Amino acid sequence: MDIVKNISFMHFQSEKDEKGMVFIRPIHTADTNQGECLDLLEEFVAVMTKNIEDTEVIGIVFNNPLGQQAIDYEALLNQAKEGSLVKKRLTKLVMSWNQLQEQGKPIVGIILDDSQSFQLSAMLYAHYRIALGQVKLGFPEIKLGLFPGLGATVLATQLLPLDAALSLLTQGNNITAGQAKSIGLIDEIASDKDAALQLARAWILDPVNRAKSSTKSIWDEELWHQLADPIRKRYALSPNIACCLQVIDKSIAISKREALELEIENYIKVLQDPITWSIIRTQHVAVQEAISSSGPVDNSAYTVKKIAVLGAGMMGSGIAFEAARAGIDVILKDVTIHQAEQGKAYAEKVSSKWVELGRMDEEKRQVLLSRIHPTDQVDNFGEVDLIVEAVFEDKKLKAAVSIETLPFLSKEGFFASNTTSLPISELALVSPKPENFIGLHFFSPVDRMALVEVIKGKKTSEETLAKALKVVRKLDKIPIIVHDGPAFFTSRIFFNYLLEAVTMLLEGIPAALIDEQAKHAGFAVGPLAVLDEISLALMLHVYDQLPQLHASQKRCYHYLETLVEAGRNGRKSGKGFYDYDMGSGKKTIWQDATLPKLDILPKLETIQNRLLHVMSLDSYRCLIEGVLDRPIDADVGATLGIGYPVQTGGVFGHMDQVGLQQFVKDCQTFAHLGEQWIIPESLEELAKENYKFYSGLQSNWPVENKN
């Protein structure tokens, strides 16, 4: 390309060739964080405007102006505190961009890397979009309590078929370049940067093709309600989804400029909502810290190249798959070679699905599968850097497989037990080096659940903890650190949730109402349905491992025993709290005639509060007992691991949203219902002070504060 003109700004450079085409690209520096996103975008629009006004320019080609720049959500939230200023800034930026799009000169956007959120919003202002084949595109901010901004909601609705637009805007999933082309989000796929530039030049120089490219989606009112109503119902507690749908719905009857103004107003409204702050704090800020910097750092030369997974059931197979995906060789052992090979078959099934979805190519799939080595013999282990025990929740069985395999651990290696509730310190007694023993509690299905609860036993060393965190992060998982105790953290509070539902059932509250109100509170599945899925017998087995039960827990335990004895063990047995039609797969609630019936049912809000509060209250106990070091670990663990409603910000975020004084008052009204409602004195004292666990995105709880 013969350059005839060069315009430079601080972060962007534009070059014009002899035909009058301008190519704008970010100036990459050693500092990857080149500035706040809005600052960069404002400068980019200035560069675009200057070139558009040049009479010699016939068209513009630009690369993503943000590159791989991450969005500083904290800066956005803080700016939104002063609504009028951020509104003025966003309005000027979006309207300037819109004017550039509506002027006559063609604009082509080239997507060289994965583009998400504002990165993708910027590309929608191009008249023509070209992407490399390997890129992923999406708007993940919907999962952080926001919705696609900078005009993206309006533009996507105008550009794409309605079903595709709603999926892109409200689901938060990435799509491939091929999928993006099929729905019209991009126009061409290029093999490399040079090929993309050639396509861009050809399109700008061909007015006939440009005319064909200017399409607009057709609004279908009936289809809109068919698609939007279930989303609105499912996410009734999510302000961002409600605002996003409102923008789409109302934008049809108004001008594009008015629609963009409406989007900005709703975007600022969502930014200012306390629920958004709670979600971003837990789902973004805390998660980013967990995957990068929380906990001790491993400064040793330890690397994990080969691991052994004991047990090829659902958990062991999932762990083996994730390890192989991370480039680690895996010895997958079970009692028979058939069972071990069945474990590898799980990896074959999941990876095949990933190929279908475009998340993996066949070559990488075959490499992944080649790393998993099924066996029924420990002699095939050789020396391994890590052993992950994932057998049934039985102390004797876990001890036996641990003793058998510990000799194969390398000098720098460590042993991890995947357990939901058995004390790590007790399991570590079989090891000659308990300091090298730790708990890694994965969640099922492992290939879809990001959380790993890292449990530090009484003798677990800081070095082993650091190595465990390194491994968890290598597996692309999100770790939280907890300390040893009966059922640790996530299992402990989740059991309280399940048993509170049984407690309400025994009081005479109908089963259907309990599960219904759980979903109204924001849980994806009702607690009684969950009990059926995990099986009532397994729940009893877990409680058999605990050192003691209080009276309320015992009442629930005995009721579950009667159901199991009557053959009502859950879904797999065809009946539990629900009756299951094995042919159709449908379920209907079961009415237990032996249970009492209340003449006056409690308020619906009371049922919801009991399910939410009981987990929060026990989380506070975990905090002061030393099971947890920080409230934020509980919030991440509860939302990512056991489905605590995301809009609360987690178990401690929920207490802040309710207000600690009101929370304690609610718990006091439940005190007669069981020992689970006993309130620690320290929490009552904090309530008197109107204490908040968080101020915005920051925690108010000192790590050393164990009360």
Commentary on this structure:
The protein has about 700 residues and is an alpha/beta fold. Helix content is about 50%, strand content about 15%. It has an eight-stranded mixed sheet with strand order 13-12-11-14-15-16-17-18, sandwiched between helices. Helix 1 links the parallel strand 3 and strand 4 (about 60-65). The radius of gyration is 28 Å and the shape is globular. The termini are far apart. The model is unreliable at about 1-5 and about 30-35 (pLDDT under 50).
Write a brief structural summary.
It contains 29 helices and 22 strands. With 707 residues, the protein is of the alpha/beta class. Strands 13-12-11-14-15-16-17-18 form an 8-stranded mixed β-sheet, sandwiched between helices. Strands 1-2-3-4-5-7-10 form a 7-stranded mixed β-sheet, with helices on both faces. Strands 6-8-9 form a 3-stranded mixed β-sheet.
Any descriptors?
seven-stranded mixed sheet, 707 residues, 29 helices, eight-stranded mixed sheet
